[in-house]
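Duplicate of #3305? Posting structure anyway:
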């Protein structure tokens, strides 16, 4: 089990190397999140599978959860916000309690049934008008097939998907407001902003 320090070191190394080689923005997902927060200032933020806490920006009401106790220990020492060790499939958090939920690069670590349960939990803890920001690596993760095979083999994830696979998993519970593709640390990454899928029946709102 990686420590939070080692995980953070790997992320920083990949980001800085990518920027050095390409001349591009080293942290595109962070930039997209900050732009989203400037346009729509969030209330309470939940980061599901927070890892080393790289999306815990100062000045926000931020909570991060992760199943890895070493990541949580690292975050509590080095990141702003509140951090709890728990599995994303079984969140011991109050319903309708978070205005923004982040699910960043968790998907390729879990198989479809587990990801469905995670999304159900996310929908439960989101406020009715809350936002889900979902991002994950998509196949082909890099243009070169051999390089893609090497990177997938080295990555701890075992459930890489194509864009349509993620859209299909999300569509039952969420309404997609926007989506775009970015390159993050050499990887093709899908960035999606969603809201709860809402059904109206006889004038009553059912989520």
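Output from current build:
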């Amino acid at each position: 089990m990686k420590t939070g320090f080692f995980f953070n070191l790997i992320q920083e190394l990949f980001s800085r190397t990518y920027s050095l080689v390409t001349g591009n923005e080293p942290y595109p997902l962070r930039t997209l999140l900050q732009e989203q927060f400037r346009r729509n200032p969030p209330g309470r933020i939940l980061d599901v599978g927070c890892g080393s806490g790289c999306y815990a920006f100062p000045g926000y009401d931020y909570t991060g959860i992760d199943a890895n106790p070493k990541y949580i220990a690292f975050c509590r020492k080095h990141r702003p916000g509140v951090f709890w060790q728990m599995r994303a499939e079984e969140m011991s958090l109050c319903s309708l309690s978070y205005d923004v939920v982040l699910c960043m690069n968790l998907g390729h670590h879990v198989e479809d049934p587990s990801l469905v349960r995670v999304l159900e939990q996310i929908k439960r803890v989101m406020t009715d008008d809350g936002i889900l920001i979902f991002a994950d690596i998509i196949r082909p993760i890099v243009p070169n097939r051999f390089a893609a095979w090497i990177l997938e083999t080295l990555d701890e994830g075992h459930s890489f998907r194509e864009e349509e696979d993620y859209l299909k998993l999300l569509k039952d519970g969420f309404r997609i407001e926007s989506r775009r593709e970015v390159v993050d640390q050499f990887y093709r990454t899908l960035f999606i902003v969603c809201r709860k899928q809402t059904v109206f029946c006889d004038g009553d709102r059912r989520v």
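Confirmed duplicate; merging threads. Residues 68 and 155 are 17 Å apart (CA to CA). The first strand starts at residue 44 and ends at 48.
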